[in-house]
Amino acid sequence: MARPRLLAPSRILRTTPRQVGGGREREWLVQKSKASIAKGSKSFSAASALFGRATRERVWLLYAWCRQCDDITDGQDHGGVLQEQANVEQRVKGIRVLTHRALDGQPTADLAFDAFGQVAMEARIDRQLADDVIDGFALDAKGWRPRTEADMMRYCYHVAGAVGVMMALVMGVSPDDHETLDRACDLGFAFQLNNIARDIYEDDAAGRCYLPVEWLVEEDIPPGQHMKPAYREKLVKLVKRLVDMAESHEAAARYGARALTLRQRWAVLSAANIYGAIGREVRKRGAEAWNSRVHTSAAAKARFVSKGFYQALRRAPEPEKWPRWTRSEVLVAVRMAGPIAPIPMTPLREEDDI
């Protein structure tokens, strides 16, 4: 059979040259990313200002990608009300394609993905870690919900723990420093557990629930009925359990911050103060926690940042009790839930070569 003829001789065809940041100027990507974080998250914007310039710029670049992935998935513009969720699985596939292109040094025509390609090269963020984050969006796209506490922690890893690891790499932590990366993941776990506690009402309105089914069953709360007034006191009990878990991971993260520079510790501990306060306020309000959305005022943020500075001057003590869930344990569940790895195609050596 004749071989198909190429449209052009193979000697003429050339691969697209690798262009970090999609060929865009780094300074331009940084400025656009700075505008994105200022619009999308005042808390993260305030915390990022505490970093040195190099780290601060990388934080902006990373945030731009995270924000864009979230907005594409939910049909939003820097957060807000969830929009039409049709074709969301296709949108997540698009996110993965653009992310892989950015990591391969190819232009994406989207500044947020080009920004990610830039920061990934600088901070040594690999494809597996990027896919771990995207897998969280894929779970939401499928309408997934956790059945067990382990499932909930797996989700927390995808949407926050893996981002915490990325942040540590952005701050210059070595990919081989697993102890510090574990503590960065703990901070992500703490943030997300507090978010789940705060956003129960909004998630329910959007048809989502991140409380494990097993937890609801333990309290005799029928699935999908947890926001009904009849179950409010039982829900308060579950949320206390959630925030207690968050505090455990927060304590581990504070201990791990000792490995960072003073400015980095200041930023991390300030963010921990802000997000920790959200969870603790939800727990304090009890049954009235979802009558209005819990938020942190500008004045309170300033106090937490100031407090974070003094905390950064001292090394946090080792937690009396470490969190139940570790990054390595959750990663086992993550990999087990993922696709089966392909069979290696490396040819076997000849017997004479052994």
TrEMBL record:
Keywords: Transferase. The keyword Ribonucleoprotein does not apply. One of its GO terms (molecular function) is squalene synthase [NAD(P)H] activity. InterPro entries: Isoprenoid_synthase_dom_sf, Squ/phyt_synthse, Squalene/phytoene_synthase_CS, Trans_IPPS_bact-type, Trans_IPPS_HH. The keyword Disulfide bond does not apply. Pfam families: SQS_PSY. This is Phytoene/squalene synthase family protein. GO terms for biological process: carotenoid biosynthetic process.
